Amino acid sequence: MARLTLPRLLSDGCVIQRRKSVHIWGWDDAGAEITVTLGSETVTGKCDDIGRFDVYLSARESGGPYELVVSDDKGESIKVKDVMLGIVWLCTGQSNMELPITRVADKYPELAQVEENKRISTFKITEETSFSGPYEEHNTGSWKHVSKDTIMSFSATAYFFANKLQSMTGQPVGLIDASLGGSRASSWMSREMLEGYDELIAETDKYNDEAFRKERLEYNAAKDEKWINGLAAADEGIKNNWEKEDVDDSDWETINLPAMFTGTPLEGHIGSVWFRRKFDLPKELAGKEARFFFGTMVDSDRIYVNGQLIGETAYQYPPRKYIVPEGLTREKDNTVVIRLSIELGLGRVTPGKEYKIFNKEASANIDGEWKYKIGAKCEPMPPTDFINWNTSGLFNGMTAPCHNFPIDGVIWYQGESNVHEPWDYADLMERMVAGYRKMWKEENLPFIGVQLPNFVIDLNEKENWGEFRLTQSKLLDIPSTGLAVTMGLGEDNDLHPVTKKPVGERLALWAGHIKYGFNGEYTGPVPTNATLNDGDSNCIKVSLSHAEGLCVIDAGKGEEVQDLFLEDKKGELHGVNIIKIADNEVICRSKDYCTEGFAKVLWCCENTFRGGLISNTSGIPMGPFKIDIQY
After folding, report:
1. Which pLDDT belongs to residue 293?
2. Which end of the chain is more exposed for a tag (fewer CB within 10 A), N or C?
3. Strand pairing partners for 301?
């Protein structure tokens, strides 16, 4: 006998979309009579031949908390408590959407003591894939409202989006978080959305083979274990306990850290390398519990202070932020030792990060000259098959079960994993937007993306973030879409920048503009055309909309505008001198005379930016563009 069941999305603390029919669904015995009560409204329904019921209550304004009661004719009943009516958004994409507040907590320390807010809630879906088809119901997920006990697990981008949106609208906000680091656009698209992309569909079919999937999982585990254990077995540092304080390091080489290993004797090294450094501490820090920051490294590390392991990280991206326990250090002659494992010969201790030991009273830097010695050399780590990134898997396992739950829109932060194959990204986005709108049966369901920020480190010639941002901007050709510009919010040396508050707030401004009648500025300046200025072929005027308060802002690289270029008819770029940035226009003159004239104007079309960014009253910079000059 079946048992009355509701989907996970309809559980305690849920936020149900206002102003749309309230959809209550679930499962029971075939033919069972179902009664649903929400507030003062009661509606009845009946299970179909396979035991599913779908009941719709009237659309209503925001409010709550309510109790939702669902019962059947056998006497079974489910009560869902603390139900709010408000605005619901799907938050999806890859790691910079998934990135939790715990990773940005040092940037926003006030969140550790955030006041409880039951009017912002999130439903986080755990990573899960299905290649056989879309799930009807989630296997994970529950609603959690904002409190100091829960907030560290919230998506940082999504939380700041919700917080700003709530301040703009006064409404309860519900977030459905379906995101996963490393995922591609096609990971979040259905088979139907990808019709005609035969290679992607074939990928889904290949991973639908359970035996093949099992073999791939076993391959991943076996190759990781073999490489890690093989390196450890060969490592002279492990054999001879190089983590100890009394190791004789008189024959070790020296290197200044942090550093890229390119151009050093460690260039191309694959295997383990050990680093050692002596350091002193001020009396306010010695012997006290302290925090140990050591930037990021490629690839995995184990760090020891005075012979004791204080932390380890298995891959390159997380910042190394460890705790030095009380009583471990002293004022003089402390030793820090790092064992770094390098998988592909691209080792580094990332420049531009913080390298220090500190507490509230004092701090000591630990960058500078270090000693090092190679522990072992080995072959490159074999590539990992990230099964869950493959086509349609995440859509089927995480997104598809959401479509019964009405929402107000989608925010999308993804692109890093598609930069190396940009040629079809605009088409994929168009298909995704259309597909999601079809799923939720809303022709103009808002869809707001995040444009990738400035970034440099690790990029190769196949990864042009400047060009990719231009591709991302094509999203705006679709009605009821937005794109949050993030140039200046990135970190050139980190794929996961911590400045997430402005990202979420810019997404909210777009949502306010598209959906909620917000009349304030929601974007930076936008070019409308480029023409010759007074007929001078070497002087170009770019006319702008959204240009009130036109100005130049310093985003960390000074106020001199250095990212505007003119492209001649041969495709060569020419730097410019700025003549004017005011009155809804930017006027510039080429630094060198071009007899053939210019064809295009380019703004911020490289991986990063060089100087001041052009903005308006919003403080949001003008987005990257490449536009034709009209003659």
Report:
1. 98
2. N
3. 313, 340
Q: Rounded to two decimals, what is the model's pTM?
A: 0.97
pLDDT band at 594 (very low <50, low <70, confident <90, very high): confident
What does each C-alpha distance from 423 to 419, 429, 462, 539 come to in angstroms? 9, 12, 12, 33
Euclidean distance between CA atoms 482 and 611, whole angstroms: 26
Q: What is the DSSP string of 89-140?
A: EEEEESHHHH-BGGGTTTT-GGGGGPPPEEEEEEEEPPP---SSS--SS-SS
Calpha distance 87→169 (Å, rounded): 9
**Both tokens assigned to 209:** 């083979």
How far apart CA 261 and CA 348 sit, in angstroms, is: 5
pLDDT score of 596: 81
The ranges assigned to domains in the chain are: 235-377, 526-630
- Residue identified by tokens 């009130």 is 548
Q: Which residues of 98-127 are buried (b: 16+ CB within 10 A; e: fewer)?
A: bbbbebbbeebeebeebeebebbbbbbbeb
- Please choose, from the candidates 518, 521, 522, 544, the residue with its C-alpha nearest in 3D space to the C-alpha of residue 531: 544
| Distance, CA of 22 to chain centre | 31
d(CA 15, CA 37): 16
CA angle 413, 549, 610 (to 5 degrees): 55
Task: Tell me the per-residue pLDDT of 280-314, one tens digit each, with 9 for 90 and over.
Answer: 999 999 999 999 999 999 999 999 999 999 999 99
235-377: what fold?
Jelly Rolls (2.60.120)
Alpha-carbon dihedral angle through residues 614, 616, 622, 627, given to the nearest 10 degrees: -90
Residues 621 and 555: beta-carbon distance below 8 Å: yes
The answer to whether 441 and 434 have CB atoms below 8 angstroms apart is no
CA distance 16 to 39: 13
- Cα separation, 113 vs 148, in Å, equals 5
Give the number of other Cβ atoms within 10 Å of residue 338's Cβ.
21
Can you tell me the distance from the alpha carbon of 570 to that of 462, in angstroms, rounded to the nearest whole number?
A: 22
Whole-angstrom Cα distance, residue 295 to residue 554? 25
Residue that is written with structure tokens 């829109």 in the block: 409
Q: CA-to-CA distance for 29 and 53, rounded, in angstroms?
A: 10
Q: What is the strand order of the sheet 348-349 is part of?
A: 259-260, 348-349, 297-298
Residue ranges of E strands in 367-488: 368-377, 409-413, 447-450, 481-484
What average pLDDT does range 416-429 have in this prediction? 97
CB-based contacts of 233: which residues, under 8 Å, 6+ apart?
none
The answer regarding whether domain 526-630 maps to CATH 1.10.150 reads no
Q: What is the bridge-based pairing of β-strands 409-413 and 77-93?
A: parallel
Q: How far apart are CA 382 and CA 373, in angstroms?
A: 24
- Distance, in Å, from the CA atom of 281 to the CA atom of 357, rounded to the nearest integer, reads 9
Pair 523, 510: CB distance under 8 Å: yes
Alpha carbon 205 to its chain's center: 28
Residues present in the chain in total: 631
What average pLDDT does this structure show over 499-525?
97
